[in-house]
Design a protein that fits this description.
6 helices; 57% helix; 2 domains; 151 residues
Length: 151
């Protein structure tokens, strides 16, 4: 990873220049973060080293990765709107009705597909909300306890 270093010092600030090879995907993610936060690439890399990398989205199911990856490009205001959102675009009454029918073994094939679709929407909402909060925290924002993600 580290190829070479050189040291420089001033009266109040000491720094070391480090040259490293990083995966291209990580470079692009850090570049995007720097752009969104209006920071230099060096500043964002230093920030990443101080607090860790931006939260990863590649460990979630594949069908949600694109939606979570898109959050990396959003500014803080947009991420806060997601974090503060109170419910997904899911008809919760219909969802509960389908869950009850499923528990009783009375779902038709069409209703089973509908239940799966509503569940996917709810799951996406929960993951987006959690990822948006993690991004905000990584960016230095004070994120308190999240409200119930599905209500």
């Amino acid at each position: 990873m580290m190829a070479k270093t050189s040291e420089s010092q001033t009266a109040y600030f000491a720094s070391t220049t480090v040259t490293l090879d990083i995966p291209e995907a990580l470079y692009h993610r850090l570049q995007q973060a720097a752009s969104v936060l209006q920071m230099s690439f060096s500043e964002i890399v230093l920030h990443a080293l101080q607090v860790g990398s931006p939260p990863a989205w590649d460990d979630v199911p594949a069908e949600f990765q694109t939606h979570l990856a898109a959050l990396d490009r959003l500014d803080n205001d947009a991420l806060w709107r997601i974090v503060r959102s109170s419910k997904p675009k899911v008809n919760l009454e219909r969802y509960q009705e389908l869950l009850d029918r499923n528990a009783d073994g009375r779902l038709t094939d069409s209703e089973r597909r509908e239940l799966l679709h509503l569940r996917t929407l709810a799951d996406r909402h929960v993951l987006q909300k959690a990822h948006a909060a993690a991004l905000l925290k990584w960016r230095g924002q004070q994120v308190g306890r999240l409200s119930s993600p599905c209500i």
